[in-house]
Amino acid sequence: MVICSVVYEVNLQLSFPIFAPQQGLMTIHKEGYKTIAISTILFGVINLLSFYFISSSIPIISWIVFIGTLGLLFFVISFFRIPKRTLTVDGNAIIAPADGKVVVIEETVDNEYFKTKRLQVSIFMSPANVHVNRNPISGKVVYNQYHKGKYLVAWDPKSSTDNERHSVVIRKGETEILVKQIAGALAKRIINYLKIGQEVNQTEEMGFIKFGSRVDLLLPVGTKVNVSLNQMVQGGVTVVAMLG
Q: Got the DSSP string for 167-212?
């Protein structure tokens, strides 16, 4: 009865907004429905077998399994959360495309699209971060390319060029910004919703990366950066830099 009650409660939460005392109203991203459903079924099966075969002889083992798998299930659910936020919309600003820590601010040569020097700002997303990716500016999508690659840890400098990744360039006036979604050691699926020719709005969803990763911004050299190394930023909220 306890297991069935927990499974029912988890399924109920997927259908309605979740209330988190520290963050207010929170919902589950559509990319998580299938993963959470499978995780819930596995949770139920593992614990039914555990309580049926083990609890009569060593009940504490069954409760340890129950608590451990329940924690994992809640972690999976929290991974796909979308917390309620007041998003920043500013035509002169470049907004953080992802939650996480700023791990790179440096000039680099882009060999994919610009073929010139660019200012790179990289945000590392741990598995505990919100993993929705958002458009840093409004504009027109002029480039969209998926690249197969390795799965180096996301903070490795080579991950920007060697890992599986998806690059998008958004043009606003005379300014073009490349946003690169990069897979990490755990992230095995990059999802991107944008198409070439599409007009996009700042802070709207551009994609999702599952289970830890990194997002790079390639900006014009000389762009005024408003963040510093190791600073924690919020996707759709923090002003990373200013245009012009």
A: EEEEEETTEEEEEEEEE-SS---EEE---TT-EE-TTSEEEEESSS
Write out pLDDT tens, residues 178-236: 999 998 766 567 899 999 999 999 999 999 987 668 999 999 999 999 999 999 999 99
- CB neighbourhood size of 178 (10 A): 19
Give the global pTM. 0.79
Question: Two tokens at 70?
Answer: 């329940």
Q: Measure the CA–CA gap between 165 and 162, rounded to whole angstroms.
A: 8
Residue 63: burial class (beta carbons within 10 Å; 0-12, 13-18, 19+): middle
d(CA 161, CA 181): 11
Chain-centroid distance, C-alpha 162 = 19
Among 147, 121, 148, 93, CA closest to 214: 121
Helix 2-15, helix 59-79: angle, nearest 10: 0
Residues 6+ apart with CB under 8 A from 12: none
CB contact set of 84 (below 8 Å; sequence gap of 6+): 23, 24, 25, 26
Of 179, 155, 157, whose CA–CA distance to 230 is shortest? 155
Task: Give the DSSP letter string of 129-179.
Answer: S--EEE-SS-EEEEEEEEE--B---TTSTTHHHHB-EEEEEEEETTEEEEE
**Nearest CA to 135 among 86, 191, 205?**
205
| Six-digit token string for 196 | 């070439």
Please give the positions annotated as active site. Answer: 213
